UniProtKB/TrEMBL annotation:
<dbReference type="Pfam" id="PF08241">
    <property type="entry name" value="Methyltransf_11"/>
</dbReference>
<keyword id="KW-0752">Steroid biosynthesis</keyword>
<keyword id="KW-0756">Sterol biosynthesis</keyword>
<dbReference type="InterPro" id="IPR013705">
    <property type="entry name" value="Sterol_MeTrfase_C"/>
</dbReference>
<keyword id="KW-0489">Methyltransferase</keyword>
<comment type="pathway">
    <text>Steroid metabolism.</text>
</comment>
<feature type="domain" description="SAM-dependent methyltransferase Erg6/SMT-type">
    <location>
        <begin position="77"/>
        <end position="372"/>
    </location>
</feature>
<dbReference type="InterPro" id="IPR030384">
    <property type="entry name" value="MeTrfase_SMT"/>
</dbReference>
<dbReference type="InterPro" id="IPR050447">
    <property type="entry name" value="Erg6_SMT_methyltransf"/>
</dbReference>
<keyword id="KW-0443">Lipid metabolism</keyword>
<dbReference type="InterPro" id="IPR013216">
    <property type="entry name" value="Methyltransf_11"/>
</dbReference>
<protein>
    <recommendedName>
        <fullName>Sterol 24-C-methyltransferase</fullName>
        <ecNumber>2.1.1.-</ecNumber>
    </recommendedName>
</protein>
<dbReference type="GO" id="GO:0003838">
    <property type="term" value="F:sterol 24-C-methyltransferase activity"/>
</dbReference>
<keyword id="KW-0753">Steroid metabolism</keyword>
<keyword id="KW-0949">S-adenosyl-L-methionine</keyword>
<dbReference type="Pfam" id="PF08498">
    <property type="entry name" value="Sterol_MT_C"/>
</dbReference>
<comment type="similarity">
    <text>Belongs to the class I-like SAM-binding methyltransferase superfamily. Erg6/SMT family.</text>
</comment>
Length: 375
């Protein structure tokens, strides 16, 4: 794409996001739902849902269309899901490991510190967060390390929220957020000391495309650290039950195509990275599973405070949210399509848990890859 086409696409996305969500930043699910423009919300809902057939047999052609339209797919997904994520999960949109007794938000932060420490992020470094969401990890890593973090994200709504939260935490000078496509990163080559991506690059149509761009902007000798969403070695694409779980993960999470671990490692090598560490952190035999909040069993909560924190994530909490959305939609306080959004998020939760329980899926295939000093 030429520079002028890129800025035209960006302006269109920004205008769409403003028309859909309104100009002012609000907090709380109900306040956010109330402020949506119903007609624009309808467009976002239709755009997302038309990418997925509900009952008919899924064909390779459907998958190809999603891969070709990945920007529309991912943008419409996050235009619909972001408020629900913040309401149910907070502002760091990722999973994590837990040790016995560890509180939810503490574990989330520790997962971010672990990544920052492994790629050697230090005070004053210039670091890129690829697919930064609303900036939860970028803020935590900025506070933790003193580095300057730039978050890249193609969703204009999330970018606006990221600026808002960073300013509130006094990080306006230490962070920046840029709307852009990670398949065409809008920065110069060799411009970042370190790059990380947390559960984001699975939205790309190919690992090679996004990793190649990360390689380009990273300085020689710099490290790229990532938690990648992958299907495990036990996953068999020709097994109908496995495929159904993978498809649920795709549809519920706005992912054009789930790929195996092998493809991730091969892509890193193909674009020139030297892989220094790789390990599936979901397969470490942890007594507390990474997916426990979505399992719906409050007895698995780590602390009393966690019962409240994880309430909206459990089956009972999700049932309540669905009914609340039904009522809000019926009385006109939430736009049409809100119940549908909650329903594909339910698909996400169930498919993620099923994939985890059968050891078919990991949201934390962790790797550190280095750009050779001679590159
Ligand atoms: C999509 C990717 C690559 C990463 C996001 C990972 C997680 C943060 C989300 C995956 C499924 C999401 C769900 C919710 C919050 C965010 C996730 C865990 C809810 C708990 C939000 C509240 C809703 O009512 C139910 C959602 C279920 C799925």
């Amino acid at each position: 794409m030429t520079q002028s086409t890129v800025s035209a696409v960006n302006s269109e996305d920004i205008a769409f996001a403003r028309a859909l969500h309104g100009e002012k930043i609000k907090s709380g699910l109900i306040a956010n739902l109330k402020s949506k423009n119903a007609d624009v919300h309808n467009v976002a809902t239709d755009t997302y849902l038309k990418m997925w057939k509900k009952s008919d047999v899924e064909t390779k052609e459907d998958e190809k269309k999603r891969l070709g339209n990945y920007t529309q797919l991912v943008n419409s997904y996050y235009n619909l899901a972001t408020d629900f994520y913040e309401y149910g999960w907070g502002t760091s949109f990722h999973f994590c490991r837990y040790y016995p007794g560890e509180e939810f938000f503490r574990a989330i932060a520790r997962h971010e510190h672990f990544l920052a420490a492994n790629i050697g992020i230090k005070k004053g470094m210039k670091v890129l967060d690829v697919g930064c969401g609303v900036g939860g990890p970028a803020r935590e890593i900025a506070h933790f390390t003193g580095a300057n973090i730039v978050g890249l994200n193609n969703n204009a709504y999330q970018i606006e929220r990221a600026f808002h939260y960073a300013a509130k935490e006094g990080l306006a000078d230490q962070t920046d957020f840029v709307k852009g496509n990670f398949m065409e990163i809008p920065f110069e080559e060799n411009s970042y000391d370190a790059v990380y991506a947390i559960e984001a690059t699975c939205h790309a149509p190919t690992f090679e495309g996004v990793y190649g761009e990360i390689f380009r902007v990273l300085k020689p000798g710099g490290s790229f650290g990532c938690y990648e969403w992958c299907m495990s070695d036990d996953y068999d694409e020709n097994n109908a039950q496995h495929r159904e779980i993978a498809h649920g993960i795709e549809r519920g999470n706005g992912i054009p195509k789930m790929r195996p671990i092998g493809e991730c490692l091969q892509a890193l090598k193909n674009v020139g990275f030297e892989i220094e560490i790789h390990q599936d952190l979901a397969a470490m035999g942890d007594p507390i599973h990474w997916f426990y909040p979505l399992e719906g069993d409050l007895r698995k909560c780590q602390t009393v405070r966690d019962v409240l924190t994880t309430l909206a994530m459990t089956k009972a909490g999700r049932f309540t949210t669905t009914n609340m959305c039904r009522v809000l939609e019926a009385v006109g306080l939430a736009p049409k399509g809100t119940v549908e959004t909650q329903s594909f998020l339910e698909v996400a939760a169930d498919a993620l848990v099923a994939g985890a329980q059968k050891n078919l899926f990991t949201p934390m295939f962790f790797f550190v890859a280095k750009k050779p000093a001679t590159a």
